[in-house]
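Board notes (copied after class):
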Amino acid sequence: MKSMSNPNSKVRTIIIIILIPIALFSFFTYYKNYFESLIQINYNSDLDIVVEKAFNEHGTYVLNGKYCIKSDTRLLDGVEKLKLKDPTVIHNFSKFVPVLYNVETPYKILKYPKSSNLFLIKKKDTVLMILDSL
């Protein structure tokens, strides 16, 4: 006797097999385009922004959904004045160094063109940061 299978089940399986790669392709295309649309903060940047929202995405810190900087950008002079949100720090030659990710928003970032220095201003405190390349 011949086994009868449900034709709807086969159609559903074929549709799923076709839709999964399309969905994955669409997701990765959107993700790639999103990061390419961000303005990278670099040596030539001229910046004066108030950061209201910031999140870490695979080693890149996205500021206000518009700018990006390495999430491990080190906080140098003046960091002892800030209350850090997370004790996570990077290890730097046997010395622990707080990074930008550790500072709660809101804060202001200033950067002048042709300089690797950034200034993070939170309330009345100013912290120097050194820009690494992305």
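Comment from the instructor: The mean pLDDT is 81. DSSP finds one helix and ten strands in the chain.
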